[in-house]
Amino acid sequence: MPAETRGIQLNASAIAHLPRLLPMEYTPGELAAELGCHAHQIRQTALPLGCPHRRDARGRLWIVGSQFRDWYRATQVRRRHPMEDNEAWCLRCKQPQQMVGPFEVTPRHGSAELVKGRCGVCGTKVNRLRTQATRPP
Question: Which CATH architecture fits 3-75?
Answer without folding.
Answer: Orthogonal Bundle (1.10)
